[in-house]
């Protein structure tokens, strides 16, 4: 979230997050001030200079305000770096995507639901031997009765899209959308890192770390809902980042126009009480759409709606304060906060309801006719479909609240960051003579264990980010922490609920961004001595090499390769992983 510092971003691409310069208004200027870290900074500016459009934009955003502000030689890399990391991530996700050639773990629910969407537009029930038939390439055994499900439709519609393209009778078809979503998430996290850190190097680091992480890799190769949730959450965050700059450009332009129209070269005192209205913020519409799709995938996205809503309002409050608005808090709430709410929330709500179109269009989906059989005096003005859907949501909420059955791979959120109990998605013991098995006993497993460098390093990075947000007031650290907090902390409110570590994939991109932030600190600033930069580069390179080696080591148990039992045991670093 936005810190209380009134300093804008550093005005050029850097290798680490930089503190921002303050601009205090006066009728005189001073030269460089002596003292550590102050050389070359302009702390005081004439009002006629402080309220020009360029000065305001540099104070609010920084010198590099978009990819077009990079030198021509670097503009292409702004898009090439995310594309290259996404290609790497795509290769890891699509290679042998159809192995194992059977439904694994909760694919038994979501893949079959998605096939029901392709056929009917809503979930239908299946006979007892449905998995065997599905695995053999014969999914067309749907029953005519509806199925009760407790997750909204978006993720299943996305799985259905892959099945529509490549067929529902093969593993590639039912896993295509998950692999595509995972690849797009790698692209987005690299692009967002470029936006946050103004560094091509750190953009590549973030994309590479997410591309090779085993936890994200497994979730991108199996058709569960969580990878789609992560995609839409990250897309909403990226849209709000774009809105942050767009809003500050508008504020700078409108204040500069007011200053230019005033004799003293600065806005009138009355104009600085609250500042200007900023008009329609189109990127907020995009964020609302993405958040609606996220909630339409899993209800846990509601916590991101709250966290991101607070975050974007704090950004606007800080912008008005930096710009010199006197009543910046009340003005920010009225002129930015309320418009943000009425822009993001209705769009998200409409998007969410629209995702239930298949249910609305059906006649016999689960609870579709509930209202007709349960009249409610005083509420009969509501359409039956709306009352039925509301009842559906109430029952699903009760189910989630009461979900406390034991499961051999359930895990407490306390253990997620250290990967205390990864969820086994698939395990078989092929015998000697099976393709790939040349010893007496072999193993073939899918265990979504995260890369230790990424997860353990990212956990340490969170503590450092807390210091840089609270102590150094760096808004980037706060924004990353907001993403982690929204995806992680709410689970501690439900200690009795059955939970799994793969829920953490929703905030994993922010964990990667946090580790990238700290690696930027290690790398040093562009103006640091050569020996300092070189030492930082060696350390960052070592971290990346270790991360790549860790992924190579764990790769067989991430992708169901057939290996010897001893090789499998060698990769079970903790007893709780078995």
From TrEMBL:
Q: What name does this protein carry? A: Polyprenol-phosphate-mannose--protein mannosyltransferase
Q: In which pathway does it act?
A: Protein modification; protein glycosylation
Q: Where in the cell is it found?
A: Cell membrane; Endomembrane system
Superkingdom is: Bacteria
Q: What protein family does this chain belong to?
A: Belongs to the glycosyltransferase 39 family.
Q: Which keywords describe this protein according to UniProt?
A: Cell membrane, Glycosyltransferase, Membrane, Transferase, Transmembrane, Transmembrane helix
The keyword Transmembrane is assigned to this record: yes
Q: What does the record give as EC number? A: 2.4.1.-
Q: Which GO terms describe its molecular function?
A: dolichyl-phosphate-mannose-protein mannosyltransferase activity
The UniProt record lists the Protein O-mannosyl-transferase C-terminal four TM domain at 388-577
Where exactly are the transmembrane stretches of this chain?
76-95, 172-194, 201-218, 224-242, 340-361, 453-470, 477-494, 500-524, 536-558
What InterPro entries does its record include? ArnT-like_N, PMT-like, PMT_4TMC
Which residue stretches belong to region Disordered? Answer: 1-36
An annotated GO cellular component of this protein is: endomembrane system
Q: What does this protein do?
A: Protein O-mannosyltransferase that catalyzes the transfer of a single mannose residue from a polyprenol phospho-mannosyl lipidic donor to the hydroxyl group of selected serine and threonine residues in acceptor proteins.
Question: Which species?
Answer: Paenarthrobacter aurescens (strain TC1)
Q: What class of enzyme is it?
A: transferase
Positions of the ArnT-like N-terminal domain: 153-241
Q: How does it sit in the membrane?
A: Multi-pass membrane protein
